Amino acid sequence: MATEVEGVVSQHFDMLNHLVWRKPSGRHNGCCKESLRRYFPQTEHILFAESRKPVPFAYDAILSYLEGERLKAGISRKAIDKACGCQMSGHWFGRSQFSFPSEQHYNTMNALFGYTLKPYLELQGEYRYIREQSNKARRTFNVTKHTPYTNVWDFKAVAFYEGKHPCEKPLDLMEHIITASSMPGDLVLDTFVGSGSTALACMKTGRRFVGCEMGESEFDGAVVRIENNM
Ligand SMILES: C[S@@+](CC[C@H](N)C(=O)[O-])C[C@H]1O[C@@H](n2cnc3c(N)ncnc32)[C@H](O)[C@@H]1O
Q: Which of 26, 56, 156, 219 falls 20 to 30 Å from 122 in CA-CA distance?
């Protein structure tokens, strides 16, 4: 069960999503509904997790700029909170829960400092650039409005053919997983190779691949099929 695997994975990684792969066609369409004693599975589950590395703070340049301007102007954080009507200065001028101010709050601060700050859009551009670079360095994540970006994915299951691996995953699903979470040239590990769909998706998308499979002889046909595609 995916929930049992999730329990084990979450002991070592930070769980980000429990994704549901919904299959439009499959045995659920043809099964005898009246004889069912529980709901027929139409989905498979994909666990999305990241390693528990501490994330280095990336916004020192922004923080020291804002703090430097605040000190030069001689304005206390308390005065900033009062002028902005909120208790956010700890976030704008502190590392632990840093957040970038809104345009309205920034302009209020700027007036308080005597209009010494850079234009809002300029500093916001620097902030966004740093955020993008830091997110990329931390963990690749590329999705668009044209690819699945929610936790429900619709991909057709692989149709039956002679020698098909019983659990063969569709190539377009594997390509989505790989392109969303890696860059060309990255190394992908699949310790349950099966038919080799991950290896094939890596070849198609320019990733390197390492895999293990203990059942090669049992699924000879499926493995040969992948080699032929190479
Ligand atoms: C769910 S299938 C993988 C399907 C694969 N993703 C595909 O698209 O074809 C799991 C595969 O892992 C293999 N396997 C199971 N336990 C293994 C182990 N301890 N070491 C290596 N392979 C293993 C099985 O033989 C089976 O082919």
A: 56
Determine the residue type at 33. Answer: K
217 C-alpha vs ligand 1 centroid, how far in Å?
12
pLDDT at 22: 97
The Å distance, Cα 165 to ligand 1 centre, comes to 10
pTM over 0.85: no
Q: What is the mean pLDDT of the chain?
A: 91
Closest by Cα among 88, 121, 222 to 162:
222
- Extents of the domains making up the chain: 1-52, 60-138, 158-230
Of the candidates 147, 173, 145, which has an alpha carbon nearest to the alpha carbon of residue 158?
173
Distance between Cα 218 and ligand 1 center (Å) = 11
Task: Write out pLDDT tens, residues 91-131.
Answer: 999 998 999 999 999 999 999 999 999 999 999 999 999 99
Q: Which two tokens stand for residue 75?
A: 């304005």
What is the domain class of 60-138 according to CATH? mainly alpha
Q: How many CA atoms lie within 13 A of 36 on its CB side?
A: 12
**Whose CA is closest to atom 19 on ligand 1?**
214
